[in-house]
Design brief:
Distance between the termini: 29 Å
CATH topology: Rossmann fold
Mean pLDDT: 95
Radius of gyration: 17 Å
Strand content: 15-25%
Largest sheet: 7 strands, mixed
CATH architecture: 3-Layer(aba) Sandwich
Shape: globular
Helix content: 40-55%
Number of helices: 8
Order of helices and strands: HHHEHEHEHEHEHEE
Number of strands: 7
Length: about 230
């Protein structure tokens, strides 16, 4: 999750990081393919904003909890979260992940191949607001789990497409929605904060989902996620 500014003390951040490290040591053991994805992403100069190991495992558990066979990820980065999600799939499952940046996509493809998941992961390169309509036009099976972790300015747009591509019972997970607490700033001019607030306005009026938002702290600082259960798809 993103680190958006020094709104917490260093001592608190050190505690958050230490607790994350302890949790990982107990419940999220080191994994060669995931470690490789993190290292290659860092070496390639990708932004260090991927989910943490415990957050990745949370995505994995949620996808498994809904019995996901088809997963959509909006925002691939270096494919760290992609690997976590793809491993939640059965052998005949599929994951479509969308990435706008060609450099990120190239690193992600290598990490997906290294994790031996190329048979069930399809990476589509290009702006998501262009590739999402293509997915809809193809008439593919509805996605059971959708992870939104791309440019926050378009969160509401991505959510609307997620609804169109889902089914009743699908779960939509939207990351980085607290913005170090800046989400409460009614006069913020930050495009990312405005994007999250617009998403909340949409969710507040949307009867086709049940949604909540959870604040989180950890190695990536103070942020949170929104979780929505689809009651009625488009």
């Amino acid at each position: 999750m993103d680190d958006n500014g020094p709104m917490i003390s260093q001592s608190l951040q050190d505690t958050f990081t230490a607790v994350d490290g302890y949790i990982d040591s107990q419940l999220v053991p080191s994994d060669l393919a995931l470690d490789f994805a993190r290292h290659t992403s860092e070496a390639a100069g990708l932004p260090q904003i991927a989910v943490t190991p415990s957050q990745g495992k949370l995505l994995h558990l949620l996808a498994r909890s809904v019995g996901a066979v088809n997963i959509l990820e909006i925002g691939t980065l270096g494919a760290y979260s992609t690997i976590w999600l793809a491993r939640a799939l059965p052998e005949d499952g599929r994951l479509v992940t969308l990435e706008a940046d060609p450099k990120h996509a190239a690193v992600a493809r290598g990490n997906i191949a290294n994790a031996e998941l190329s048979d069930r992961v399809e990476l589509r390169e290009g702006a998501a607001l262009e590739t999402l309509p293509e997915l809809a036009a193809e008439g593919l099976a509805a996605f059971d789990f959708i992870f939104i972790d791309a440019d926050k300015e378009n969160n509401a747009n991505y959510f609307e497409w997620a609804l169109k591509l889902s089914r009743p019972g699908s779960m939509i997970f939207i990351d980085n929605v607290i913005r170090e607490g800046a989400v409460v700033d009614e006069v913020s001019k930050d495009p990312m904060v405005l994007g999250v607030r617009r998403l909340n306005e949409v969710l507040a009026k949307e009867s086709r989902v049940l949604a909540t938002t959870i604040q989180t702290v950890g190695a990536k600082g103070y942020d949170g996620f929104t979780l929505a259960l689809v009651l009625k798809a488009c």
